[in-house]
Amino acid sequence: MERGFETHQFRIRTELDGLWNFRTQKGDARRVSVPSCWETYPGLERYQGKASYEKKFEGGGNLHFIFKGVSHTADCYLDGVKIAHHYNAFTPFETLVENVERGTHTLRIDVDNSFNEESSLHVMNDYYTYGGINRPVIVEEVEDIYIERIHFTPIRTEKGWNGKISVRVRKIGEGIQKIRIGLALDDETFGDLTGELTQGVTVLEETFSFPNAETYEYRDFLPGSAEVNNADGEINIPAPKLYYLTAEVWVSLGEDEEMLLDDMIERIGFREVHVEGNRILFNGRPIKLRGFNRHEDHGLYGCAIPYDAMDYDLRLFEDLHANAVRTCHYPNDERFLDLCDELGILVWEEGHARGLSEEQMRHKNFRKQSLDCIEEMIDNHYNHPSIYIWGILNECASHTEYGKEIYAEQFALIKQMDQTRPTTFASCQFFKDISFDLVDVVSMNLYPLWYHDTPVEEYLTQINDWIQGTSGAGKPIIISEIGAGAIPGYHAPGNPKWTEDRQKEIISEQLTGVLGREDFSGVYLWQFCDGRVPDGYFYSRPRCLNNKGIVDQYRNRKQSYEAVKSIYAKAECGTYK
Ligand code: ADA
């Protein structure tokens, strides 16, 4: 499944999941299910290189292909003719092939997950770059006029909600065509967009008022927050209010006749996020984050985590009384974002980058590859109400002039595409970061008691005092990473580091310290689950895993799980004093 809901009633589409033919460059061939990572195919657990996937399908006319994620570089061919190229495992891409003869066709995707000289973001790093078609592939049959994207912007007014609706339509072929786009919210028609299309892309947009729209609220998941009443026999659990926004493209046939050419359904929420002083306000109320950093990584699936396993992770988030997730360090599978929308989990989504030096940020492809990733992330994920902030460039060179230029360039792109969400980046440039003037929210990755033995309270005060002397003064501050490691099952006298007991001690002190202070807008624990790292990190990552999860890579719980749960359950961790 591509999304958590149906995105079309009218458009003809086929999800190309199921069995594909697979072969590595060395000739290892087998049939595999897609989406998947080749590290889950026996014998290929550590394969880095190239491989091909092939799938036959029936279709014809204008074929629109949607690739939700291929890790990490894809070259796509239809019946042997190249139709698309894409870099980055974590963002969707699409392509159109016009006037294809109806019949049986072969789609081939050549995939490369090597750390080659063209790759500036998928490099040796503290997370694993898997290989494969890690997210769904869809083929659609579209008319000569079809909807490419719908963007919905909620606008709060004194009289209730307005909504700006932008519909991006593509016209194939020459000539001018008048169209009417019929708009409905939960199947209730509320207006039209009309316009004349010429070849290529046209954006039609207008702001409509929705005075009776119900506001989308995130869930705080504090104990007792789900008032469930079964009085009328139904199980009523409060859920954030989501609406289905439908757009239908009609063309006039003369007189009073019209013909439906295409449709698209988006799911939206009426909510507003903004920064006021040192607080992040969600519908006017300050949020206090009790979150986790979550890599898309699983011991059974690699980064191709199936929908049910994503849902299982979020059931643990709810059990842990967490209200937020950070998609460290790249855009996530849209089905996960759909679940966060439905559950009301606050999402910090970020562009793909982790810990790149100034030299790595000077890689010949770095600017384009990271700007492309941001553009694809926002263009595709704009409508998710659970995303309250955009992040970029985790722990990159925000302490150098060149690095700051790059951060500025990327924030400019974000603000150009989305003026409604605050921006941030997670810094580790302690006492030397020069880029806080670029952000709405300051975020810091700290590891007191793990990477250094400075007492938590002392270190938090040092960091906050420093920030108040920089261009980040007075801005909200998020502790975007804090944590400690533990090898599952390891216990030893004196609780040395890597024991579960020591992890619990350290994390308890860290979380209590951060959540007990007024000066922070909350915390994202590093990290939710243990995640795989490449052999190149073996010296500091026992088992070739980043072992700072409170569950292991199979979601088995460590001792610290219950400790985090009890801290996050405390009411004072959900509000300020
Ligand atoms: C950094 C980085 C994370 C992870 C973490 C750790 O803060 O942002 O990706 O590497 O350190 O485990 O040390």
Structure in a nutshell:
With 577 residues, the chain is of the alpha+beta class. It contains eight helices and 28 strands.
Describe the structure.
By secondary structure, the protein is α+β, with helices and mostly antiparallel strands. The protein contains 8 helices and 28 strands. It has helices spanning 307-319, 334-343, 358-361, 366-381, 401-417, 456-467, 500-515, 560-568; strands spanning 12-15, 18-24, 29-34, 50-67, 73-78, 81-87, 93-112, 137-142, 145-157, 160-171, 177-185, 188-197, 200-210, 243-252, 258-268, 273-276, 279-282, 285-286, 289-293, 324-326, 346-350, 387-392, 423-427, 442-445, 477-481, 522-525, 531-532, 545-546. Strands 1, 2, 3, 4, 5, 6, 7 and 8 form an 8-stranded antiparallel beta sheet that branches. It is globular. The mean pLDDT is 97. Bound molecules: alpha-D-galactopyranuronic acid.
Shape: globular
The separation of the N and C termini measures 44 Å
- Classify the helix fraction into a percent range: 10-25%
Percent strand equals: 25-35%
Low-confidence stretches: none
Would you report the number of β strands? 28
The residue-averaged pLDDT reads 97
Number of helices: 8
Question: Over the alpha carbons, how many angstroms does the gyration radius reach?
Answer: 24 Å
Annotate the secondary structure layout.
Blueprint: E1 12-15, E2 18-24, E3 29-34, E4 50-67, E5 73-78, E6 81-87, E7 93-112, E8 137-142, E9 145-157, E10 160-171, E11 177-185, E12 188-197, E13 200-210, E14 243-252, E15 258-268, E16 273-276, E17 279-282, E18 285-286, E19 289-293, H1 307-319, E20 324-326, H2 334-343, E21 346-350, H3 358-361, H4 366-381, E22 387-392, H5 401-417, E23 423-427, E24 442-445, H6 456-467, E25 477-481, H7 500-515, E26 522-525, E27 531-532, E28 545-546, H8 560-568
Parallel strand pairs: 19-20, 19-26, 20-21, 21-22, 22-23, 23-24, 24-25
Antiparallel strand pairs: 1-8, 2-3, 2-4, 4-7, 4-8, 5-6, 5-7, 9-10, 10-13, 11-12, 11-14, 14-15, 16-17, 17-18, 27-28
Helix pairs in contact: 1-2, 4-5, 7-8
The site of alpha-D-galactopyranuronic acid has 12 residues, from loops.
